[in-house]
Amino acid sequence: MNGTRLLDTIHSPADVKRLDFGQLQELCAEIRAFLIDSVSKTGGHLSSNLGTIELTVALHKVFATPSDKFVWDVGHQCYTHKILTGRREGFDRLRMLGGISGFPSPRESEHDAFIAGHGNTSLSAAIGMAQAKKLRHEPGKVIAVVGDGAFTGGMIYEGMNNIRSLNNLIVVLNDNKMSISKNVGSVAQYLTQLRTSPRYFKAKRDVESLLDSTPVVGGAIKAGIQTVKSAFRRSLYHSTMFEEMGFQYVGPVDGHDVKELSMLFDAYRQEQSAPLFVHVLTIKGKGFTPAERNPGEFHGVSAFDVNHLTDPDVAPDSSFSTVFGQQLAQLAGQDERICAITAAMKYGTGLQYFYKQHKARFFDVGMAEQHAVTFAAGLAANGMRPVVSIYSTFLQRGYDQIIHDVNLQRLSVLFAVDRAGLVPGDGETHQGIYDAAFFSELDSFQIVSPCNYAELAYWLERLLLEDGPRALRYPRGAEDEALAALGCSGLEYDVFRAEGPADAALVTYGAQAKEALAAAKLAAQQGVCVDVYKLTVIHPLPQGLCDALGGYRSILFAEEGVRGGGIGEHLAAALLERGCNASYRHIAVPNNGLTHASVDELRARFGLDAASLAADIMNQGDVK
Predict the structure, then answer these.
(1) Interior CA angle at 503 toward 498 and 504, to 5°?
(2) Which residue from 239, 262, 431, 624 has the highest number of Cβ atoms inside 10 Å of its Cβ?
(3) What's the record's note on cofactor binding (predicted)?
């Protein structure tokens, strides 16, 4: 091809279909090299995408989106899909403002069928789509690509219990870790090859047609054959869960053999007997040795130098997550009641330190946030001190359990809410903007929002000594230098006074304090004095706060959370009840308009940056 990469000739799925099997293998190798190079420069999800290249190429070789629909679980497997659907040139701005999303987005492409930022949702969505196709008499298949980690969450099983007879549904299990169905060697491999042959289906249909047309005994013989076949498979695979749920099971299949995968999907493309379940074995991080050895480290990465890689257990970057994890491990050495619980995020939450030192009291429950919360409630009800460490965006999935199983009984569960506030890169699927609002609707909860490492360490130790439901929320990444310099007063809120008498107060909490302090300096340069109130305890509102704010003419509350139900609304109501006459402005994150961008870009977009806050204060008109 005169030195031209095959990858450079792929502009749509139609270009994949014209390639022979040798060219498909070459294309997979080029995509793997492209992803390693591209993600090392921009950051993104690497391990999971390296493991699904051949699978995705085979799907696009056989099926035709958007008539056929691919539903990813979760969406961090979809980079190859994006490359093959005309978005390769957008990877230089992956997850950046104005660039392509790191997850499927129907607003971005007609080839993306469903948003998939959270796990174990695909099957329910795919069942709905397949049923809609039936009701609308539309052709095409719905293919759900499900990572094995999703099977640690309950929605997958709820979906399997409701597949009915959707013969236009295909579920592909991307099994890169656990063995759901045992491969028993050459016999199983032979049967898999046999059942992927078009001759198998022709013979199967011919026999079924003959039996259906045979009076009296045909139906009984057909039922008997099916019973014997099911028993034979049971003896081979040692698991018929999927078939018992109504699927036709095929596998295990080598997930890195693009020819075998393509032939399998082509053989089953027109099969109409039952929903199909294809068990595919892959290697997470395939083709990049460091990611194969430690797929957890390379699950979601910032930009990195491929020639200088570190062991996350030995030399991690400093972050709120690592400081939390190290401090919790230390405190657990002093109190044997302390347990740590996470939902498939041991490294992401910094709990690898706890795991190494207190393995018996560490629990990774998988993608099962609901179970994590109620499990913690059970531990607390029997005298333990559980700490549930989950990203803010994923903790939303356990809200019923927070209300019913923890709050109603006033159980001593501490929620360590990681990635709280605005989050870069992952856009609308992973923002931590709801937790302050939903926790603060529960009167029993104490919510603490530290702005630096010193406050995080102090309040973690203090909250572990207290009883009842508590939440400690902190941002993604490292502490800001200006906020680190503030240290920790141990007070529920701190006041930073202007050099002159101030008519205006700027109130905030957490990482947003950086912008508030900078805004006060900008206002001072224009001759406007502003006092800054930095809350550490955000619910219930600290005693004395409303009285302290009562003397200002103007109050501006800024928070990296949603407006409705946010802390700013709670403060506004409390001030109104006390008869405060100050003008009040609440700057918060809207429920729409979120996108993938840096935190600074998001703050500027929502008027939460220092310049916007300073301008807002000075535009009040009655401040000096």
Answers:
(1) 75
(2) 431
(3) Binds 1 thiamine pyrophosphate per subunit. Binds 1 Mg(2+) ion per subunit.
335 is in an annotated binding site: no
| Active-site pick, 61, 82, 286, 397 | 397
Edge-first strand listing for the sheet containing 142-147:
69-73, 142-147, 169-175, 276-281, 248-254
Range of the domain at 282: 6-199+242-293
Instruction: Exactly one of 284, 473, 514, 534 is catalytic; name it.
Output: 284
Distance of CA 367 to the CA centre of its chain: 10
258, 232 Cβ separation under 8 angstroms = no
Tell me: is residue 435 an annotated ligand-binding position: no
**What CATH number is associated with residue 589?**
3.40.50.920
Q: Locate 376 and state its tokens.
A: 């913690």
Catalytic, 369? Answer yes
Query: In this structure, are residues 585 and 616 in contact, taking their beta carbons and an 8 Å threshold?
Result: yes
Last residue of a domain, one of 459, 481, 503: 481
**Is 95 one of the annotated active-site residues of the chain?**
no
Asked whether residue 288 is marked as a ligand-binding residue, the answer is: yes
The reply, when asked if residue 149 is annotated as ligand binding, is yes
**Single-letter amino acid code for the residue at 326:** Q
Whole-prediction pTM: 0.77
| Residue range 90-112, pLDDT digits in tens | 778 777 777 777 777 778 788 88
User: Which of the residues 54, 297, 369, 560 is marked catalytic?
Assistant: 369
Whether residue 369 is annotated as binding a ligand: the answer is yes
